[in-house]
Amino acid sequence: MPYPQWSIPFVFCFVLIQGCATHPPDRSASPLTIAVGPVTFEAPVTKSKQIYTFEQNPDPDVDRQLLPILIDDIEVTAQRLFTEELAKHPGIRVIPFDETRRLLADLRSAGTPLTDAQIQAMGQQTGADLVVTGLIHDYGKVRWQYWVTGWLAHVAIATTIVGVATGWNPAAVGAYLAVDAATDFPLWWGGAEIFGFAFRPVRLHLEAFQIRPCPGEIWSRDELMVRVPGKRLAAYPEDQQHLKQVQLEANLRRAVEDLVTEAADALDARPCSDNNEAKPLRTFSWASIFDLLL
Predict the structure, then answer these.
(1) Could you tell me the domains of the chain?
(2) Residue segments in the chain with a per-residue pLDDT below the cut of 50
(3) Cα 185-187-192 angle, rounded to 5 deg
């Protein structure tokens, strides 16, 4: 539950982290050519029902065959979304989706990230200036390391506030903890619906690699979406809005759109170092802090 007294410090910290706003590079004279590589699913999903709504859950044997198919479909959808969203930004030319899919079939095994050599090969064969690739860290639920840490930190601060305000009245503190557990677990854990709100966490990572004039990783960001906005679900047929796969796709689209907006504002040809490697952009993504908990 948000507390107004924390708003000003939080906004101040957010400004420090984000830094000053920057204008997107002027690419009118020389458009940036980008190839969208694979988006690899690495979320700890072990059963199809965690990411898909069934009228009747499949038996274990069927599920073992079905889960890789569902994951592959999510990876392909994410790659297509990145391709479509990047193409909407002026000054960016995107290698067609079908072309990159054909090339990836020859470059790597399905479900595995590209190596540095494969990234360079993809860029050279498509004539791209940059290659972007993605990772789906979380999909449908948050890893326990994340939600336990987040919820404990939140409840420690909030309980202290309630305790000080009530003189550490056991009844008041106990009542707060009960209400907090009932309402905030979905926020930190995800994968639930409460009071008509859907919580379907999606954490997505995007990184960009320069191909020419000198190679190297130049930019990366993470984006985390938890609650599914109603206006997003309104774009789907009403009889499908309760489905896990629909709610997750809605948040996947949000994460892709936000990451692409940030990428379009930041990416451009980078100068080369003395070692003939591309100099990376200095960026910070608050969602990447979760990686420190693994």
Answers:
(1) 30-138+202-225+244-293 (3.40.50), 144-189 (no CATH)
(2) 1-21, 286-287, 292-294
(3) 75
